[in-house]
Amino acid sequence: MLSAFARAFQTPDLRKKLLFTLGIMVLFRAGAHIPVPGVNFVAVNQCLKDTPGGLFALVNLFSGNALLQLTIFALGIMPYITASIILQLLTVVIPRLEALKKEGQAGTAKITQYTRYLTIALAVLQGTGIVATASSGALFSGCAYANQVVPDQSVFRIATMVITMTAGTTVIMWLGELITDRGIGNGMSILIFTSIAAGFPGSMWQIKQSGTIGGGWVEFFSVIAVGIVVVGLVIFVEQAQRRIPVQYAKRMIGRRAFGGTSTYIPLKVNQAGVIPVIFASSLLYIPALVVQLTNSQAGWAVWVKNHFVKGDHPVYMVTYFVLIVFFAFFYVAISFNPEEVADNMKKYGGFIPGIRAGRPTAEYLNYVLTRITWPGSLYLGLIALIPMIALVAFGQQTNFPFGGTSVLIVVGVGLETVKQIESQLQQRNYEGFLR
Hints:
By secondary structure, this protein is mainly α. The chain is built from 17 helices and five strands.
C-alpha cells in the first residue's frame, strides 16, 4: 500500500490532486483553531478542562472539537449533513424533488443548490442556538467560568458571532466542493474524516494519562487492541454485500443485437451507513438538552438526568440500541425502492433468474433487503455501544476514539478514498491498493 502511495505521488496529475487535498485539509484544521470574535478564550479553555464533551459531544465530534472552542468553524459540516438528510427524506414526500432526482445530472445539480440554501439557513439557526447557549452559560454546565465565555452580550456582538459561524460553514462547503472538483473527490466526506481523525491522538493520550494500571499504558494498549479488532470488523461488514444476479435478454434493433449480458444488484449489509447512529444520538440528546436549558426540577426532569445524561445507564443503552435498529430499517425503506428498481429492470428487459419480472421481483428484493438489514442494524447497534462499554470499563466515553460514529465514518471514508485512488492508478496500468 505504501509503495502504491509512492507511485501515486510519482504521477504528476494525481500528485497535484493529493497535494491539493492535503492543503485544503490543513486549511480546514487551521480554521478550527481561530476563535470567533467576542469569545473569552481563556474561559473556554478552563471550561474545557472542567467539563469536556457533555451533551454536545456529537456535534463537537463532527466539527473536529471546534464547537466547544467556539471557533469560526464551530458548526463544522453538521449543517450540511443535516440539510442533505432532510432533502433526501423530502425527496420521497415531495413529487417535485422526486422528479428532479429522476432528471439526471441537471436535477441533481438543482437538488445540490437547494441543499446549499438549506445549509445556510440551518447554520444561522444552529449558530444562534450555540451562541445563545454559550451566553447563558449552559454550553459548559457546571463550569465556574461558564458565564464569562461571552462577556459582551450586546445585540451587535451576538449578531457578529452568528454571522461569523455561518460564514465559516459556507467556507467549509466551498472547501469540500474544491476537493470534489480539483482534488481526489468526496470532498465533504474527507472533511468529516479530517475532523474526526484529528481528535484521535489527543483522545489516546488522555486515555493514557487517566489510566491507573501500569501508569496508564495497560489501558492505552488495550484500547489500541480493541480498536484494531473494531476496525477489522467494520471493514469486513462494510465490504459485505448480497449480490442479486440480473440477466438482460437480447434485443434486435435494426441489424444489431443489444443486451444478453449478466450483471448483479449489490445490496450492502450495512445499507443505511452511519445515518441511523446519527438519528438515534440526536434524538436521545433532546430530553437531556431540554432539562439543561429549562433547569427544571420536576419528577420527569430528575428521571431524565438519572437515565439519559450518562451513557453508562442500562436504560440509555437499551433505548439507544433499539433506536438504531429502528432507524436502520426506516432509512433503508426510504432510500431503496424495490418497486422502482423492479420497474427499471422490466423496462430494459432485465430479470432475476427464477423470478418473474414486475411485482414478484419487487417482493423478492424487499424480502432479501429485510433479511440483510437485520444483521446490519444489529452490527450498527453493537458498534455504537462500544464507547458506552468503554465508559464502564475504563471511565472513558467522550475520549474513546474507536467506537460509534467516529470509527464508522473514518473507515467508510478511508475505504472509499482508497478505491478512488486505486481506480485512477489502474487507468495508468499501476498496481492498486486492493488485491
